[in-house]
Amino acid sequence: MNRQDELRQQAHTKLHEFEVFMRDGHFDYGNGFHGRVYLNPHKLFRYPSTIWRLAQDLLDVLPGELLAETDVVAGPVTGGALLAHTLAGLLDGRRALTHPPCSFAPFSNTGDGFTLRDFYAHQMRGRRVLIADDVRNTGKNAASASAVK
Questions:
Q1: How does pLDDT run across 92-133, given as a tens digit for each residue?
Q2: What is the CA angle 42-143-134, rounded to 5?
């Protein structure tokens, strides 16, 4: 078993143990979709160490080229912002001091999509952004966030 497979297995076990990852049920995702698997963001954020461990594991399995080119980690305030903020901080902790710091930006949900406050929009302009969210059911949040100008 390689390092990535080992991390995936450890993460799967811990997320199931903390009742974050639930499977073999019938879950109504609240958006018209149903499924047998659910990732409970409320349980994920219950213990700060859980989100830190998950973020560290994500950084270990994401492509190194992607992480090397990331200038900003952004996420929706409805859940992904905490993960994005943690990822940005941990990513900086792995970089040399000579590397420019990674920024964080929260997307606000307007009901019709996402928006950024002018301050964050200015900070992100022309930079490479990694979008993080806590749960992915349909991909609509990621698509909406990536469309923000």
A1: 999 888 888 999 999 888 777 788 888 998 888 899 999 888
A2: 15
Q: Any idea what the Cα angle at residue 142 is, between residues 69 and 62, rounded to 5°?
A: 40
Fold of 3-146: Rossmann fold (3.40.50)
Distance CA 21, CA 11 (A): 10
11 phi/psi in degrees, rounded to 5:
-65, -45
The residue assigned the tokens 């999509």 is 113
CA dist., res. 95 & res. 140, Å (int): 31
Q: Residue 125 CB: number of other CB atoms within 10 A?
A: 10
pTM for this model (two decimals): 0.76
